[in-house]
Specification:
Blueprint (H helix, E strand, L loop, with lengths): L1 H20 L5 H10 L1 H17 L3 H15 L2 E2 L4 E2 L4 E2 L6 E2 L4 E2 L4 E2 L4 E3 L9 E2 L4 E2 L4 E3 L3 E2 L4 E2 L4 E2 L7 E4 L4 E5 L8 H5 L7 H14 L26 H15 L16 H12 L2
Parallel strand pairs: 1-4, 2-5, 3-6, 4-7, 5-8, 6-9, 7-10, 8-11, 9-12, 10-13, 12-14
Antiparallel strand pairs: 14-15
Helix pairs in contact: 1-3, 3-4, 6-7, 6-8
């Protein structure tokens, strides 16, 4: 049993490090993140405190948690249960209370509070792939589903289903990313059953681009080779972000920024190909 617990602890640490450093391409860059990133240090000190706690070495767990708060500014209780792939971007002001449960691959950004609402140990249970933006707070005995995103300074005091984005105080759902009941690319693209999947996605994408994004180019002049940024349609970087958000909503996707490359945004066709690849997973 002790060996199993040790293996789980080391697996968590390996995954934590890999998740934070996966965007770094060079060995030196990865080593620099490991040595100099205070967010990772907060996570590793939490893991150490948790290890002490599970072995009933609670004075050492408390001292380690205290050292973590002094060194990094993050107060993460050793009594909190947090899955692997835990990322803390900027640890100052982050507080995770005792008995909180968080799933795997969760991200806290800065100034986040996950804890009590009424002071009777009523803390949340949070699913996998959770992301909290700066200042977001999750309070009370509530359940948060998988792939939930909480906007900046939002205050969540009610349970949330899978795949939603919330914002405001009190938080309300501003985007529902839950996949539609129909799973094929042609049906998701809409009215494209007679077309091949790429053509259906392409047609739906053109509708997304021309609906409410301020694009002046007529829809019938936008095709596979139309350039998105600069020439062609002439979107700037901010407008492109709005298009990506609209794509997520229209196709029922969650697109991580790390998955997008400039080559995916060169033309309407390249973006349609990226969307089709994601839909086929």
């Amino acid at each position: 049993m002790r060996s199993l617990k040790r293996d789980i602890v080391f697996d968590n640490i390996r995954t934590d490090i890999r998740e934070l450093t996966r965007r770094e391409t060079g060995v030196l860059a990865k080593v620099g993140v490991i040595l100099l990133n205070p967010g990772l240090h907060a996570v590793l000190l939490y893991r150490l405190a948790r290890w002490f706690h599970l072995r009933h070495l609670r004075p050492l767990a408390v001292l380690t948690s205290y050292f973590c708060s002094v060194l990094t500014g993050a107060q993460i209780s050793a009594r909190a249960t947090i899955g692997k792939g835990f990322v803390v971007s900027h640890p100052h002001g982050i507080s995770v209370g005792a008995t909180t449960v968080m799933g795997e691959y969760c991200t806290l950004t800065h100034g986040n509070l996950i804890g009590q609402l009424r002071g009777d140990s009523d803390r949340p249970v949070i699913g996998n792939y959770f992301v909290a933006a700066t200042g977001a707070k999750i309070l009370g005995r509530i359940r948060i589903g998988d792939k939930v995103r909480v906007g900046p300074n939002a205050v969540v005091m009610q349970s949330l289903p899978d795949g939603v984005t919330v914002a405001g105080n009190p938080a309300r759902i501003v985007r529902d990313r839950r996949p539609p009941e129909s799973g094929s690319a042609a049906r998701i693209a809409g009215r494209g059953a007679s077309l091949n999947p790429h053509a259906a996605v392409l047609r739906r994408l053109v509708e997304v681009i021309t609906n409410g994004s301020g694009v002046m180019t007529p829809r019938d002049e936008i095709g596979e080779d139309t350039v998105l940024i600069g020439g062609g349609i002439g979107l700037d970087s901010i407008e492109m972000l709005h298009v990506i958000s609209a794509v997520e909503e229209a196709f029922g996707l969650t697109i991580d920024e790390s998955e997008l490359d400039i080559r995916h945004l060169e033309t309407v066709g390249s973006l349609a190909a990226f969307i089709g690849e994601r839909l086929s997973r």
